[in-house]
Structures are given as C-alpha cells and as structure tokens.
Amino acid sequence: MSLDVLTFGLNHHSAPVSVRERVSMPEQLLRPALDGLRSAFGARVQEATILSTCNRTEIYCAAQPEVAEHIPSWLAEFNSLEANELRPHLYQYNKDLAVRHAFRVASGLDSMVLGEPQILGQMKTAVRAASDAGSLGTLLHQLFQKTFSVAKEVRTQTAIGAQSVSMAAASVRLAQRVFGDLSKTRVLFIGAGEMIELCSTHFAAQKPSCMVVANRTRERAETLASQFDGKTMKLADLPERLAEFDIVVSCTASSLPILGLGLVQKASRARRHMPMVMIDLAVPRDIEPEVSQLDDVYLYSVDDLGRYVQMASDSRQAAVVQAEAIIDSRVQNFMHWMDSRAVVPVIRNLNQGADAVVQTELDRARRLLAKGENADLVLEQFARSLTQKYLHAPMVALNRSQGDDRAALMDMLPRLFPYQDSSH
After folding, report:
1. What residues act catalytically?
2. In the chain, how long is the greatest CA-to-CA distance?
C-alpha cells in the first residue's frame, strides 16, 4: 500500500507551555518513543522522526494514510495523558501540507522567533536520532535532506533572519524594563546548555556586577563561566543563595521544577522585597508558575518572551513572502519526486512481466531449434507469438470496453503502443 508523509504535533501557536511541557521529549526519550510508535503500528508506520523542542513536539511519519486518526491517541497515551486533553491542541498535515510544514519549520517561519537559526540544528539532531534508532528510511531521508537544502536557500536569498530579536536578547530587554541599567545587578544562570550560553553572552555585554552559573555538571558550569569571567555554584546551594541574585535565568532538562513557590517566597523575604526578575526558558518549566503571584517577582515564561519577540518580528513580512514563494516551488518539486517514486513499482512489475514472457518464448524457440526445426520458421513463430502476447491485454480491454471507456482507451492506446504508418 502507498505511503503518505504525515505530520502530527503541537507548538507555541496551538498550545500553551503548560500543555507543551507535558509532551516534551528530551533526547534520551526519543529512541523509546520511536520504538514504541513503530511497535504500536507495525508496518503501517514504516518510518518516523520526532522533533521535540521547548516550542514544539512533532512526529513526522512515512505511513499508511489510515493510521492518521490513531496517532494522536498514541501520543497522548505515551505521555500518560487523556486523548481529549491533547486533541484540541494538535495539528495534523499530510502529503504536500506535511512537506510544506517541514520546510517552514526548518526555515524559521514557524518559530516563536521569526527566522531563528537554532531550529535547523534541532531538526538535524532529531533526524540523527531517528537514523540511530533505525526509523529513518528512503522517504523521510529524502524529505529532510530537501528540508535542510530549502532552509539554507531561504536564509541565503531572503532577509528572514536579519535583525532577529532572539529569546536571549529579549531576556535582557525584559530585565532592563525592571532594573534599567544592569551594571549593578547580580545574574544567576541555572543550566549550561545552548540557550543559557546565548543568554550569558547577551547579559555579559551589559557588564553586570556578578554572573554565576549553577549546573548539575560542575565541569560544564566552569567551562561556561570562564567565557565571561564568572563564577559557579552547586545546584544544592540554591535554597541558601537564591536571595543574592537580582536576575535568574533558568533552562535545564529537568522533568520537575527546580525552583518552587516556597523557595522563591523565602528568597523574596530575605531580599526585603527588592525586585527579582526570573526568566524560565525551560520546557518542562524549571520555575513553578505560581511564583508569578509574588508581588516583587517578575516571572517570564518562554511564551511571555515569545510574545515580546513577535512584536519585533512584524517588520519582516516582506522577507516572509519571499520565503513562502521559495517554499511553494520546492514543495512542488518534492511532490513530483514522490509521484515519480510511486511509479517505480509499476515499472518494475511491467519489466518483470515482460521478461517472463520473453523467457518463456525463448525457451520454446530453443527447444524447437534443438530438435532441428527450420531456423527461419522458428524465428517467425517466436516473433508472432511474442507480439500476440504483447498485444493480448490491450486488445481484450478494447474489445470489452464500451462508450466513454472505449473512447478513452482508443485515445490512450496509440500513445502506449505507437506504430509506424506503412504509407509513410
């Protein structure tokens, strides 16, 4: 049965962070998820890739079309959710719409930060994980290679990434809204991944009085801190030291909050209610959302930063129009490749059938020649028999057809079986 490209997922457009964090899959969970998906559907899902970031969790499949209605339930069950909790937030694309979505995501057109480049690296990581899990076949391999090529073309030929207000830059600007000049502030970074590294670079440019990194792995914390002459601390010391900091930026892979309401409340009292900016870039969230209820704490989630960034992105709509035009053209190219790929088994079957007929007639001719039959008569019989078998199926179809079907066949047959007019 033919396979479709199918895409299922949710993102910052369709679901709030409170829902996204419940289906977010850290890298170590991708293989079990891919294995579980293929185990649940067997041959009906032949290829699969899962892309999971703070802003989206998406499943890309090469699958039989009828599985589409069942995959959302599988995604909910895998994440221990009720299907009706998830369905209102899910989108689904198939065929050319699924291909278009992949191209738009990789090009940064579907990102919270319009044109941001990180998503392309995240998608490449997801494809490597699928390849390692053995769930990447010809169709998705071709799709993602084309996806990466389109993303490069969009970034090269348009200004989609120009003057992009990144999440890291937005973090600094939101902190400046509260403190103004950041040169007298103390900044704590929790985590040491790519997003924290970006944020630390932006904050370092403001020359705060102190920058500290707390991370589960001390070596990574020290490596990052050394880039801006900062210091490190243990995560276990957070309860005692949180009150020291004016700005806290957190982005870890923890499945549970690191900073709870009680802990932040205690720190706020110790600070004598001096303002504190807390920026939570993690999904699932590192800081309990109830912290936002505290009068002197300004808590921003990844969605809050996204809204701020969007306001700065609206001026680049001309670049978006250019990018969409490129993507439209490349989607058509890919769908043409898919259509031509669907013809391959038909051509193979035609060739195999023809080879079988030829072999049967050759065997018969060889037997006659071995018996001493006249070679010219054997060749003439071979040619006549081969021609009859070659024309048998279209002649039967033509004789059995009527009305419009016969007219369509009579129009088609000269193209399928062209002949030379003997009068020319």
Report:
1. 54
2. 113
Contact between 137 and 168 (Cβ < 8 Å):
no
Distance CA(63)–CA(47), nearest Å, equals 7
Distance from C-alpha of 285 to C-alpha of 21, rounded to nearest angstrom:
7
pLDDT above 50: residue 389: yes
* Size of the chain in residues: 424
Note the pLDDT tens digit of each residue in 159-197: 887 756 688 889 999 999 999 999 999 999 999 998 999
How many other β-carbons are positioned within 10 Å of the β-carbon of residue 281? Answer: 25
d(CA 154, CA 196): 27
Using an 8 Å Cβ cutoff, are 224 and 244 in contact? Answer: no
Beta strands 45-52 and 276-280 are unpaired
Residue 170's CB: how many other CB atoms inside 10 A? 25
Ordered alpha helix ranges (H), 371-420: 375-400, 403-416
Dist. CA 213–CA 224, nearest whole Å? 8
Instruction: At 187, give phi and psi (nearest 5°).
Output: -115, 130
What percent of the chain stands above pLDDT 90?
67
8-state DSSP, 66: G
pTM of the complete model: 0.76
- 153: which residues sit within 8 A by CB, 6+ positions away? 326, 330
Q: Look up tokens 């020290």; give the residue.
A: 222
Pair of tokens at residue 243: 């009150």
Rounded to whole angstroms, how far apart are CA atoms 3 and 187? 52
Strand partners, 188: 212, 248
What SS3 class is residue 244? helix
Strand ranges (E), 175-275: 186-190, 210-214, 231-233, 247-250
Sheet containing strand 231-233, edge to edge, reads 231-233, 210-214, 186-190, 247-250, 276-280, 297-301
Rounded to an integer, the average pLDDT of 363-388 is 89
Residue among 337, 362, 364, 361 at smallest CA distance from 138? 337
Residue among 182, 152, 158 at smallest CA distance from 169:
182
Residue 96's nearest CA partner among 332, 327, 339 is 332
Condensed to tens digits (0 to 9), the pLDDT of residues 82-116 reads: 989 999 999 999 999 999 999 999 999 999 888 88
Amino acid at 296: D
